[in-house]
């Protein structure tokens, strides 16, 4: 019997598999469907959106395991689906090593080895395919998906699969789109409408529409709205439309190319065309008066072994000697001549350092506030005045030489050189060309004219360089190229899609070609990188500029399209003003100052105003930063309540809201709970999806490298609760939730980790709290008005923290005695549960951070052998050795001394040494005999690792732990 009053995601969610698929998608980089359209921060993985929408729409039955099997089948995360997605073959060696000895005899020669297996003669293609399937099915989920396409690339399930799905769900679908519509009709009496009022980069609307839902998407920020619109209408366009759009892109590029060639500003006297220019700031050393070019490194390319060596010109300055194929000594010279050391100017002439703040003439006022000394550039300026602290200088150009060798083959050679007099004349010509067009182009909007409005991110270019207008983040050559593109798009577009694609193209050019574009000198690639490599406008002392030919890969964006037929509405509107009714609202709100979108996107809006005002006049081209939901504190909380109350009012009584956020601070959880509670919503479940990647753009601290999804329903209760009865109800709910998850879990392929059980305790407390209209003694409005960094623990925080403690008391590791577990120190419990994470093949930093927070362990880094993203693991006994023993709480603990005893046994190849160590340590007052049971329990736990294949680093220690346990057991008999 199907129950449509509840949904699958309210009762269970396969977080492990969804996390792994989300991570795989994130690591695809340019292969991701939407990232090619333009820069946005924190787009949610499409598979997470797909799983969430499906989870909200699927009903539950009286067979939870069957519900999960069907869910996984629809998402192609079951065994059959993974085979369908399999796009790469295992190597002959991989197949061989996964077969039994008997199977090897049937298919491989007798001389085959693990390193060099050879098929028998006459083996058929069908037999090889059988072996591929046989061995693939023996792999773990993690191993399998490395050979698979992503779920979004599967065109359709088998007829047998659809028969099983339809039988369980009482539907008649033959594809995912039909299924989504039928599930919506059963639940809401109509095809489902999915809404997102913080659409951002457009992941939620795009994927919802792609799988068959109707979509309403909005964002106050016009850049976000354009990206969302382009996802639905360009990434969602047909292949024929994409071909037409590509033709338009080529036409615009060719128009710009013709003009650049006509001006002769990129070709040198030999006819070779430049593809890159390198610039640096230059400033006067206050100690000796020399003009010093500024850079933290003069290495141009490690692959081509190219460096810039400064030469004293004897005239108060330096010339550049560009050396390609440099020797080790020349590299050393270039390294010694770097002129930015820390935050100081280093002068190679007088060998003295000057703080950059002193150069800028920064000073403190009477109140101790910094007054920045640089003058602010005027609106009509695009080059520095001679009197400015920082000048700008071209110091290297890379040219491309095309030629035919003696064999008649076309060849390309790239070479770096310092600019000569002809190059300098071309630079002067660029300035002249821009000067002639500058007033007209600014007036028409081909290049920016708007002021940089100060803010957390936007103040940096103003105070560190004096750039006060957006166009000043670009040098004359960059402005000329980008202005040509903007002009050509404006004059030649015929459709809205062409205009939007052109706008997105100009945004990408701006991102990759500004004075904030770092030059990458690595061995694999020597090129300039994007401005927004992280979430800031970072000024730099030297930068790379891409000439037109190097901008091809930026302009011709990677569009991974799939035609979307569903109805969609996109608006640029304040979430508080929405009046569209949606069955499901899925939102990823701005939270806890994670990213200042309203500021950063003004970098792009400065270029977009012209086209936005023409093609989307109903949208404002202003960032609307005054209306943006931002920051923290009472104003932020009030805005969030207004938004979510409005969404709740624009949702049917049986509708669902899903709120996604990335934070692990209990204060934030408590605040979010009160915001949603005040908005008329109640929490029904929560799940944690780990999407951790190593990236410079991620936040540190309390920002977890994953996504928490809260499932909410409308608040319908009128009951009032008393605080003294809540603890009992939370305890019952925590235990029920953990037991339910354990019953559902697959022992062979665990779906839930400690982090998920802990999150369940958070959700359980929120579920109990938000089930009531009011709670006696808790003034929600007062609590929301307090600063988040207040030391005082709010009543909501206290209840959540109690729920966490309840969970950790209840989560006793398998095989560990209850009484012994309760006697262990928090640090010991953390170490044991951390090892359980390893058993489950969980290596995300966030999982261990959550454990530490739950146990109240602050100092834990020394326990880890590796603490890098997705490769986290604790030290073994042999890696720990006797280092730091008795130095702190953990190193003085029983657990730590047991680890030393294992290490001693391994070193001596005898358990006698380990046993004697423990007896000597705990000989006083017969402590050894009192602790004997606990010692055996710990040794027995570690002995489990001996036969776990992915924990081979523990195998030797686990072997001796098993022997030592028996030695301790038999001691004194």
Automatic annotation (TrEMBL):
Protein source organism: Neobacillus citreus
Protein name (database record): DUF1156 domain-containing protein
Record domain DUF1156: where: 12-74
Classification via InterPro entries: Antiphage_assoc (IPR049953), DUF1156 (IPR009537), SAM-dependent_MTases_sf (IPR029063)
Lineage summary: Bacteria, Bacillati, Bacillota, Bacilli, Bacillales
Residues annotated as transmembrane: none
């Amino acid at each position: 019997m199907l129950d449509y009053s509840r949904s699958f995601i309210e009762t269970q969610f396969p977080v492990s598999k969804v996390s792994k698929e989300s991570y795989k998608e994130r690591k695809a980089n340019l292969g991701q469907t939407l990232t090619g359209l333009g820069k946005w921060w924190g787009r949610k993985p499409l598979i997470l959106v797909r799983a969430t929408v499906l989870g909200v729409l699927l009903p539950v039955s009286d067979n939870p395991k069957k519900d999960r099997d069907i869910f996984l089948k629809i998402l192609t995360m079951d065994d059959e689906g993974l085979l369908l997605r399999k796009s790469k073959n295992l190597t002959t060696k991989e197949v061989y090593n996964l077969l039994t000895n008997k199977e090897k005899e049937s298919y491989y020669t007798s001389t085959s080895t693990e390193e060099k297996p050879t098929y028998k003669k006459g083996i058929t293609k069908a037999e090889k395919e059988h072996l591929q399937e046989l061995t693939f099915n023996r792999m773990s989920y993690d191993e399998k998906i490395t050979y698979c396409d992503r779920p979004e690339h599967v065109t359709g399930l088998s007829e047998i699969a659809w028969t099983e799905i339809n039988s369980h769900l009482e539907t008649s679908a033959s594809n995912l789109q039909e299924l989504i519509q039928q599930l919506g009709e059963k639940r809401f009496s109509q095809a489902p409408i999915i809404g997102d009022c913080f659409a951002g980069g457009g992941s939620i609307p795009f994927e919802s529409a792609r799988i068959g839902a109707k979509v309403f998407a909005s964002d106050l920020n016009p850049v976000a709205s354009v990206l969302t619109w382009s996802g639905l209408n360009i990434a969602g366009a047909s292949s024929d439309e994409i071909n037409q759009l590509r033709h338009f892109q080529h036409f615009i590029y060719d128009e710009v190319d013709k003009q650049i060639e006509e001006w002769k500003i990129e070709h040198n006297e030999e006819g070779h065309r430049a593809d890159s220019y390198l610039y640096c700031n230059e400033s006067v050393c206050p100690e000796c008066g020399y003009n010093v070019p500024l850079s933290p490194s003069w290495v141009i390319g490690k692959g081509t072994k190219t460096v810039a060596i400064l030469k004293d010109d004897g005239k108060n300055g330096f010339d550049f000697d560009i050396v390609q194929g440099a020797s080790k000594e020349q590299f050393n010279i270039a390294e010694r001549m770097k002129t930015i050391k820390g935050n100081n100017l280093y002068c190679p002439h007088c060998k003295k350092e000057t703080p950059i703040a002193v150069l800028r003439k920064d000073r403190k006022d009477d109140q101790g506030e910094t007054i920045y000394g640089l003058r602010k550039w005027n609106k009509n300026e695009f080059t520095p005045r001679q009197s400015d602290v920082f000048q700008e200088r071209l110091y290297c150009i890379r040219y491309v030489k095309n030629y035919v060798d003696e064999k008649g083959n076309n060849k390309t050679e790239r070479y770096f050189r310092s600019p000569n007099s002809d190059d300098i004349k071309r630079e002067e010509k660029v300035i002249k060309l821009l000067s002639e067009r500058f007033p007209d182009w600014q007036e028409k909007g081909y290049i920016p004219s708007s002021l940089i409005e100060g803010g957390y991110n936007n103040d940096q270019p103003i105070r560190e360089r004096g750039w006060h207008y957006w166009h000043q983040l670009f040098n004359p050559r960059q402005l000329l190229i980008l202005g040509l593109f903007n002009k050509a798009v404006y004059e030649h577009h015929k459709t809205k899609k062409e205009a939007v694609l052109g706008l997105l193209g100009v945004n990408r050019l701006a991102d990759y070609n500004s004075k904030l574009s770092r030059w990458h000198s690595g061995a694999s690639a020597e090129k300039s990188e994007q401005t927004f490599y992280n979430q800031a406008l970072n000024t730099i002392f030297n930068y790379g500029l891409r000439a037109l030919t190097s901008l091809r890969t930026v302009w011709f964006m990677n569009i991974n399209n799939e035609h979307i037929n569903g109805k969609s509405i996109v608006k640029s509107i304040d979430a508080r003003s929405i009046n569209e009714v949606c069955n499901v609202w899925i939102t990823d709100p701005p939270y806890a100052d994670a990213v200042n979108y309203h500021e950063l996107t003004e970098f792009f809006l400065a270029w977009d105003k012209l086209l936005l005002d023409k093609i989307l006049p109903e949208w404002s081209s202003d960032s609307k930063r005054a209306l943006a939901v931002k920051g923290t504190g009472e104003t932020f909380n009030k805005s969030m309540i207004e938004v979510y109350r409005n969404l709740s009012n624009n949702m049917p009584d049986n509708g669902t809201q899903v709120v996604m956020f990335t934070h692990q601070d209990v204060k934030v959880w408590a605040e979010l709970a009160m915001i949603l509670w005040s908005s008329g919503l109640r929490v029904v479940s929560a799940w944690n999806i780990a999407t951790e990647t190593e990236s410079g753009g991620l936040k540190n601290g309390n920002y977890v490298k994953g996504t928490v999804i809260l499932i909410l329903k409308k608040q319908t209760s009128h009951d009032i609760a008393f605080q003294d009865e809540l603890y009992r109800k939370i305890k019952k709910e925590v235990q029920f939730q953990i037991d339910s998850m354990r019953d559902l879990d697959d022992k062979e392929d665990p779906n839930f980790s400690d982090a998920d059980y802990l999150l369940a305790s958070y959700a359980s407390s929120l579920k109990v709290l938000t089930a009531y209209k009011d709670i006696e003694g808790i003034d929600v409005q007062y609590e929301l008005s307090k600063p988040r960094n207040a030391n005082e623990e709010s009543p909501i925080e206290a209840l959540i923290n109690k729920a966490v403690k309840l969970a950790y008391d209840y989560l006793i590791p398998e095989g560990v005695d209850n009484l012994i577990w309760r006697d262990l120190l928090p640090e010991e419990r953390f170490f044991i549960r951390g090892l359980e994470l390893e058993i489950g093949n969980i290596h995300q930093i966030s999982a261990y951070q959550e454990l530490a927070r739950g146990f109240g362990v602050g100092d834990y880094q020394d326990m880890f052998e590796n603490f890098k993203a997705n490769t986290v693991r604790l030290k073994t006994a042999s890696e720990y050795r006797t280092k730091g023993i008795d130095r702190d709480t953990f190193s003085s603990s029983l657990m730590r001394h047991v680890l030393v005893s294992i290490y001693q046994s391994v070193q001596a190849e005898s358990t006698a040494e380990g046993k004697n160590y423990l007896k000597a340590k705990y000989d006083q007052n017969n402590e050894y005999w009192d602790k004997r049971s606990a010692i055996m329990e710990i040794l027995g736990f570690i002995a489990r690792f001996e036969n776990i294949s992915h924990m081979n680093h523990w195998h030797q220690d686990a072997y001796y732990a098993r022997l030592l346990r028996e030695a301790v057991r038999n001691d004194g008999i």
